[in-house]
Specification:
InterPro entries: MgtC/SapB/SrpB/YhiD_fam, MgtC_SapB_SrpB_YhiD_N. This protein has about 240 residues and is α+β, with helices and mostly antiparallel strands. Helices cover about 60% and strands about 20% of the residues.
Amino acid sequence: MQFIETFELTSFLDTTISLTAAFALGTVIGAERQYRQRSAGLRTNVLVALGAAAFVDLAMRIAGADGAARVISYVVSGIGFLGAGVIMKEGMNVRGLNTAATLWASAAVGACAGADRVAEAALLTGFILGCNTFLRPLVNFIDRIPISGGETEASYEIHVTCELVAAAAVRKAVARILREAHYPAADTDLEARPDGLAALEISLVTTSVKDSDMDSLVTAIGRIGGVRDVVWESSATD
């Protein structure tokens, strides 16, 4: 049997250490994610770390350091598909980016363990936990700092409800107001409603707009004949 010919006790013990380290460190990362009730929790992070470690360890045994380097590059790109599965878009908001990044980092921990760099894997685990745990108070502090709209980068949308018969004229008038205010529209969507009204949605090109400017635009648009209601909203960009 080929197994008997290729089995080496020292190599097997080395693989055992690598996978055990990946399992233990992945558990530490995953436990924190599970406690935060993230979509990719304990088992997912452990499996990512174990899988990365197994692929790199196998490449090390078959093709040496050069083979391991190639496998690591494939792990880095391949884990992106798994990370994309936990990223969700809800309206204009995107969720799951931190979870995807944690999975990517868990793969790096597994790759380090698979390459017999257990100390480096443990160090990286510490940094991941520090990022997800100890930086949270700093994130909350920054989020509570009041800033004006012009100091943030965001996506801005204006929602106009108008009479259907006046929709074309309203659309032209809105475009003129935005152009004169130097806030041109990136995209405009007009949808007819069964109640005789039309919904006009305008996305702005500019990503840095003062709240006062948006209020002025809404006021000006509200004076257009046939307009029933105007509101604006913004959402953070990555």
